[in-house]
Design brief:
89% helix; 63 residues; 4 helices
Length: 63
Amino acid sequence: MRLLIALILPWLTFFTIGRPIAGIICLILQVTLIGWLPAAIWAVYALSQFKTDQKIADATRRY
């Protein structure tokens, strides 16, 4: 679901992963039509990093 949000409304993705300042910057970037594609790529990248960080945290809690 977050991946779909990252592609359609990139700025909203940052709010769902707890990075509101990056979300505001992404919203400003997305306002321009040319900036939408870099904003979407940035949101997908940030989402993948968030998931990786969660997996690492889960793995370290187990041991």
